[in-house]
Amino acid sequence: MRTSAPTNRTHRSRRQFLASGVSVLGVGLGAGACAGSLARAQDEATFTTGVKVVNVLATVRTRKNEIVRDLTKDDFTLTENGRPQVIRYFSKETDLPLTVGLMVDTSMSQQKVLESERTASFRFLDQVLRESKDKLFVMQFDMAVQLRQPLTSSRKDLEEVLPYVDTPTRRELSMQDGGGTRLYDAIVEASSKVLKDQKNRKAMIVLSDGGENGSSATLTDAIEAAQRADTLIYSILFSDSSYPAPPFGFGGLDGKEILLRLSKETGASFYQVSKKQGIEQIYQAIEDELRSQYNLGFISDRPNEISEFRTLKLSTKRKDLALQYRERYWAKA
Questions:
Q1: Is 16 among the domain residues?
Q2: Which end of the chain has the lower number of beta carbons within 10 A, N or C?
Q3: Is 35 left (phi over 0), alpha (psi -120 to 50) or beta?
Q4: Is the dihedral of CA 21, 25, 29, 30 positive or negative?
């Protein structure tokens, strides 16, 4: 476990970070899915308790990757395990509260990019987080998994904790026992211990090079934990080109392939920081996506007699469009 006393390096990082003048304001949107019941249909959806409603968040794009924002409920068809379902509830740019986890890879391979990640993360929160509605937690992972900031709506809490999200000290490295990047364990822990019992929209933003070394969980475990918690995983591949490539993970996948799977199988997007697209631009793209999703709700025609994963297929009448959504969900008995 990390000591609470910051190192000199951390003091410098904090001073540099706070000097940037970045602060968290209370505006914006988010993404995720929930189960409950809805009291109103069409363009306004209000969640209550009782009936089990399955919600599917979808982003629709053209072949040129432009987001489509003007579809209606009648433009969509939905099936569960191959059976057609009635879309009972439909809304655009849903205003439901958001719970988001900022998941930061703090292994040594990320040392040179961490400052950029912290600054960009604060600016993203400045655009997205609404202090009166939304909640955020901060988790870092390397040879250990640490919940740096439990769920909070306080910008003061976030302002104080983010500068201390840092790579291990020399002392911690000398005491290392086991692997150095527990990505899968972090996702499982965030899903099962933080997000599982939260309502409304839920998402994680994973900042990592995708390296995995030391988790007891597998990639499948991580994906299924997020799916059970109805949580989207937005992955941002940010790596130091001078650092050796991360080791192969589950099934011989490299870091990029791991992050791609985490995002695709939970219905979110994958991004890679490059000269053409910096981390600030990526955060802007994520914000645009969160503001432009369709929320479709249905009540399954088959009661949940046992807990199981069920497959979803969402399509539109327009064949020239591409849909991004979660392709299965956890039906809890």
A1: no
A2: N
A3: beta
A4: positive
Task: Indicate whether 300 and 171 sit together in one domain.
Answer: no
Q: 204 and 106: one domain?
A: yes
Kindly state the helix (H) or strand (E) to which residue 126 belongs, with its residue range: helix 114-128
Asked if 27 contacts 124 with a C-beta cutoff of 8 angstroms, the reply is no
- The residues facing 114 across adjacent strands are none
For residue 167, pLDDT over 80 is answered with no
Range of the domain at 134: 96-290
Structure tokens at 267: 């219905």
Comparing CA positions, the residue from 186, 204, 172, 217 lying closest to residue 286 is 204
Residues 85-94 pLDDT 10s: 999 999 987 6
DSSP readout, 8-33? Answer: HHHHHHHHHHHHTT----S-------
Exposed e or buried b per residue across 220-235, where buried means at least 16 C-beta atoms within 10 angstroms of its C-beta: ebbbbbbbbbbbbbbb
The whole model's pTM is what? 0.80
Q: CB of 266 within 8 A of CB of 228?
A: no
Q: Are residues 231 and 258 in the same domain?
A: yes
Can you tell me the distance from the alpha carbon of 287 to that of 28, in angstroms, rounded to the nearest whole number?
8
3-class secondary-structure state, position 186 = helix
Token readout for 135 is 């909640």
Phi, psi dihedral angles at 90 (to 5 degrees): -150, 135
How is residue 35 written in tokens?
A: 């189960």
- The H-assigned helical ranges of 153-305 are 155-161, 170-174, 183-189, 219-228, 255-264, 279-290
Amino acid at 218: T
Residues 189, 150 within the same domain: yes
| 132, part of any domain | yes
- Look at residue 158 and tell me whether its pLDDT is greater than 50: yes
Residue 161, in any domain of the structure: yes
In the numeric block, the tokens 């199981």 are attached to: 308
Distance CA 229, CA 95 (A): 20
Cα–Cα distance for residue pair 254/241, rounded to 1 Å = 15
DSSP states of 263-284 as a string? HHTTT--EEE--SSS-HHHHHH
